Amino acid sequence: MAQAMPRSWVQSQRIAHSQKQIALFEGTSKLNYCKPKILKSSNTICELETEEVLEQADYLYSCGDTEKLHQLLVQYKHSDDAEFLWRLARASRDLSLLSSISAHEKKRLTYEAFDFAKKALEKNESSFAAHKWFAICLSDVGDYEGVKVKIGNSYIIRDHLKRAVELNPKDATSIHILGYWCFAFAELPWYQRKVAAVIFASPPTATYEEALEFFLKAEEVDPNFYSKNLLLLGKTYMMLKDSERAATWLQKVRDFPALTEEDKQVHKEALDLLKKLKG
Questions:
Q1: What is the pLDDT of residues 239-271, one digit of tens each?
Q2: Assigned CATH for 10-225
Q3: Contact 129, 86 (CB under 8 A)
Q4: Where in the chain is the domain with CATH 1.25.40.10?
Q5: Under 8 Å between Cβ of 150 and 194
Q6: Phi, psi (rounded to 5 degrees) for 223
Q7: For 107-151, what is each residue's pLDDT tens digit?
């Protein structure tokens, strides 16, 4: 399965943020974190303060400011609110993907992200984002647990992604990851297929055509929302021997603004594939 599941809605969130959110950060060199107001004889965070913190978190996410986002949300790691917890899972995971993070710290953050995602799901099974990030983080943990465990978790991952889409059909990221699930199993190496056959009576299978359907659906829901969806559309068409459509999508990646480290890696891969197509 995937080495790096996606960030979500970066482009659309940026457009959606209001001037009020931007004003939270203007004229200051340091983040002015909202500290939770504690009610007398209670540990409950005031609803207004909760909304303000979540607004700040979403703003930082839209800016790709991963470290500050994690610093903000880790203050709420003991929260029982799934809205904090799934965002913290996402922030921990994104932090683990930074090139400056050591291998040891990457592993710690990967398991930390999974723990937060699991807790978010326990607190609110009706949260599409909790299902999505649980699936993503479970896949990431599998990278440390070995091929057998990773493949063994594949149906669980797929089922949570399907549930996320059921709860929010307009979430392009969940649809994209379902496509990635199909793509991963369509290109599964023979030795991993053997492992899958040992684990399951009916091993997971998928086709590039199925992957393509999900990737196209994600673009229909939210056009140009994620550079990797564009890349995988190009790669899928390459696998289907449709060079013309493959080049069209890879050129979209080439023109996509590279805002994150992942965007830059995706951009480089797209350029390499375009050279391969021309060669």
A1: 999 999 999 999 999 999 988 778 999 999 999
A2: 1.25.40.10
A3: yes
A4: 10-225
A5: no
A6: -55, 135
A7: 999 999 999 999 999 999 999 999 999 999 999 999 999 888 888
What is the rounded distance in angstroms from the CA atom of residue 169 to the CA atom of residue 84?
22
Instruction: Answer left, alpha or beta for residue 204, where phi above 0 means left and psi between -120 and 50 means alpha.
Output: beta
Task: Using the structure block, give the residue that is written with the tokens 């369509």.
Answer: 186
The three-class DSSP label of residue 192 is helix
The answer to whether 166 and 118 are in contact (CB under 8 A) is no
Q: What is the maximal distance between C-alpha atoms in the chain?
A: 70
* DSSP-based helix, strand, coil % in the chain, nearest 5: 70, 0, 30
C-alpha distances out from residue 125 to 54, 62, 88, 131, 136, Å: 19, 25, 17, 7, 16
Which residue type, as a one-letter code, is found at position 78?
H
| pLDDT tens digits, one per residue of 179-210 | 999 999 998 887 888 888 888 877 788 999 99
Distance between CA atoms of 21 and 157, rounded to whole angstroms? 34
**What is the pLDDT, as a whole number, of residue 47?**
61
